[in-house]
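Q: Got a minute? One more chain.
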Amino acid sequence: MPYSAAAVSAEDLALPQKELQKLAANSALPLLASNLYLKNNKKPDFLVSTRLAEAGGRKVGFFSLVIHDPAKANTPKYLPNYRLEKESYETERAVRALRAAGAQLVVGLVAIAPGKEAPHEFYKDYLARLPRIDLLITDEPSLKKPFKAKRTWVAPAGQGMQHAARLGLALDDSGRVKGLNWERLPLDAEKYGEDAALLKVLARHKAAAAAHFGRKIGTLKEALPLAEAGTYPAADFAADCMRRWARSNAAIIGLSEPAAGFSSGTVTVGDLHRAFPLDSSVVFVKIRGDDLERALTGLSPTEISVSGLKLFLRDSALERAESETGPLVPGRVYHLAVPDSLVSGRDNPVLSSAMEFANSRRPLREVISWCFSLRSSFAKPAGGRVIKAEK
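A: Always. Here it is, folded:
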């Protein structure tokens, strides 16, 4: 069948709404995004949830999903510009709409966020309680060949601009898929040439992405490396930003939150995404002093950075914690700001000890960007937050 639709990828969601709308307007194909919503909880009117096409005398229905993290399936995700709804809920809506419109075959296009892996079990669990889907095509790079999950074939798409995937479906007398022929085709530009119209679309997309990620958000007088002489400047800076934005007594962030540091000089949106690639949001926590000290012990104090606190360690274990005004007061209520990545999990020591907590839905990257907007330039944050006793 001819090309009939294209799916929004996880990378596309880094673009602001206006840029994504331009991309959709310039696309020769309708862009699908079945589980994507704007921050006002409305579906973007420049994208479609389903698409019906014809091939071989049969009606084929398409829907698409963006999966932020297969390990946290069916969990809504709030991104800086969009919201991803639970995939099973939106899939069922899309499949029923397509069947009602006369689709004889239903195909899902599944985009997995970069750096995430969707094992076979993810697809099996996802498909277990859904209406019949005939084929899923996914861009997840670890999937090397098709497999069957329940009644559904799951096949890898082409990767980047190096390969395309050709899929042939064998149908039984009732019109259901009984076999799949999958072939990986190298895309040799010298041999096959390139489509000028498609190259123009790609050029516009790249230009829009370059303009967005190249936008200046601030300036650093000094570099903020991931680690330097036993300190963690990038994480310290983020902790300071969270604390200032939340107007809290303290902030805590995991050292695994930043993936890279910042160079001195101009800081761009792209630099911010490289340094903080996780789509974490800031959580407000109210906790008593004695519970906070116990929670800090449970968090492994050598794996966190703090703002508004001092951690005193002996043999890598927390000996005591202090606020800026002195020792933590057992009965006093302290207000914390933490990224949701630090407090995920049912038995998390912070949330299990908290009096109250609430997710602000404000992305950590947005908070750091706000921090950069406050001053013309920033120096390296103060150290001395984690004090290790000499043996």
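A: The chain has a mean pLDDT of 89.
Q: Perfect, thanks.
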